[in-house]
Amino acid sequence: MSITFELDQDKLNAALISSRKIMLNKGQIEVLEKLHDCIHTALPSLSENVIELLMKTSCRDWEKEYVRPINDFRFIHVNERMAAFYQIFMFFIRRINDLLITPLDTSTVIFLRNASLINFKDFLEAEGYVVTYEIK
Q1: Residue 15 belongs to domain spanning
Q2: Residue 74 domain-assigned?
Q3: Tens-digit pLDDT profile for residues 108-131
């Protein structure tokens, strides 16, 4: 499936500037690297910088919404981790839609979500976890 989109350059520039203020600790960077791989596989046409920007802000949004530090992410049950990944991914979709001239349609979001969740599930299983989280 080929996905085409156009970013609003002014909004992107503003977001890039504000994301420079976000400093991450080692645990957060570890989590982001794993999530980044999943997102990059699902959205290969986005540049590394844009994905990093969106992931940083999405993780921060998740921390604020659930009042839980992203460091906890590594220590929660694997199925809860899948659910948290899904939540972060939805923050990511909201963030990317803010930057797009035309927002992603529902079928594209579902495709990206499933691709990312499957990639993350495969990563966890490769690490030796038994994942029973059902991808719908």
Answers
A1: 9-126
A2: yes
A3: 888 888 888 888 888 888 888 899
